[in-house]
């Protein structure tokens, strides 16, 4: 059944800006404030990973500490291990996300360990998050293909998703990291994962490298998924997936959903403006077709 309402998890300030030329802390805080003003209530604001690996996210603590908080908005951060969690907690993150993969090679390149080792690292993080009552989201990368291994079996996506869910993640975000999937495969993958994780706890995180993200979302909407990750202006990519472009542009997703009569509570024109503003900082046009059409 088609949802009547959808929750959008905005990843532009993290997934987007982690793979763009560095922008100032002030520009990032301005972007996050504009996203909240446009009605986004779930905003990934930074990432507590090694600054040697991802220098673009080195100011995440400053951002979380200084951003004026809007009531009703959750400001979250990526945390690969206990050290990252402790830094995020000190900085005042409302929730955090652990990130694993359905591909051994991607796991190794991205977080320098195997899938099994990553899960070992997540255990103390999950325990500490529980003590502090911090909700943890779980990402699984490479759900429709891997830049190093090619095809990934849906059984492996389901296996890793189930582990993260059983560890206590409140939501599992399924990432097509390199945007390679097509609708039939996306649907098949979601159906397989929904056998082990309730569909209401699944989110889709589709990069738009091959222009398939909206089609894939449409193919999965009537399965009952009602949370989608997106990145304003289509910002970003993934530093450990060569050639990956940004996530689906939030503006394009909102336009499609509103056109279908599905509620998001997002003001599209304010959102498009936020996207144009950060694109101007980056010195290029917005990556959202809708934002450019509305200009
Ligand atoms: C995971 C690590 C840290 C392991 O890196 P490592 O080298 O294996 O870790 P280590 O424990 O051996 O520590 C090495 C150094 O890193 C430091 N360190 C250790 N942990 C932290 C931390 N949390 N924060 C800050 N510093 C940290 C640690 O203190 C030490 O510092 P040194 O002694 O050399 O000065 C590293 O591989 C890393 O930072 N990788 C970057 C991963 C990343 O950010 N990837 C992009 C995000 S994932 C993504 O975009 C996909 C997603 C989620 O969007 C979904 C999709 O699209 O598929």
From TrEMBL:
Recorded catalytic activity of this chain's protein: (3S)-3-hydroxy-3-methylglutaryl-CoA = acetoacetate + acetyl-CoA
Keyword Glycoprotein appears in the UniProt entry: no
Protein name: hydroxymethylglutaryl-CoA lyase
Pfam families, per database record: HMGL-like (PF00682)
Similarity comment text for this entry: Belongs to the HMG-CoA lyase family.
Pathway as given in its UniProt record: Metabolic intermediate metabolism; (S)-3-hydroxy-3-methylglutaryl-CoA degradation; acetoacetate from (S)-3-hydroxy-3-methylglutaryl-CoA: step 1/1
EC number: 4.1.3.4
């Amino acid at each position: 059944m088609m949802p009547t309402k959808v929750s959008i998890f905005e990843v532009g300030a993290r997934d987007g800006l982690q793979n763009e030329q560095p922008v100032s802390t002030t520009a990032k805080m301005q972007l996050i404030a504009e996203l909240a003003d446009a009605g986004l209530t779930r905003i990934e604001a930074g990432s507590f990973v090694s600054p040697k690996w991802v220098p673009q996210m080195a100011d995440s603590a400053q951002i979380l500490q200084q951003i004026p908080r809007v009531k009703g908005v959750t400001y979250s951060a990526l945390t690969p291990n206990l050290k990252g969690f402790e830094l995020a907690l000190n900085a005042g993150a409302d929730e955090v996300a652990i990130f694993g993969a359905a591909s051994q090679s991607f796991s190794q390149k991205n977080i320098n360990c195997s899938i099994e080792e990553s899960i070992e690292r997540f255990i103390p993080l999950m325990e500490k998050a529980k003590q502090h009552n911090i909700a943890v989201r779980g990402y699984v990368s490479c759900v429709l293909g891997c830049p190093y291994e090619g095809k990934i079996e849906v059984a492996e996506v389901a296996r890793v998703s189930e582990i993260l869910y059983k560890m206590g993640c409140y939501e599992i975000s399924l990432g097509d990291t390199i945007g390679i999937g097509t609708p039939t495969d996306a649907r098949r993958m979601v159906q397989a994962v929904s056998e082990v994780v309730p569909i209401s706890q699944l989110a889709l995180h589709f990069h738009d490298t091959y222009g398939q993200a909206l089609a894939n979302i449409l193919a999965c909407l009537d399965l009952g998924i009602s949370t989608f990750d997106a990145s304003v202006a289509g910002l970003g990519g993934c530093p450990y997936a060569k050639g990956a472009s940004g996530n689906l542009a939030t503006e394009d997703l909102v336009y499609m959903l509103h056109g279908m009569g599905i509620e998001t509570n997002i003001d599209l024109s304010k959102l498009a403006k936020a996207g144009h503003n950060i694109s101007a900082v980056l010195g290029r046009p917005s990556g959202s077709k809708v934002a450019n059409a509305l200009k």
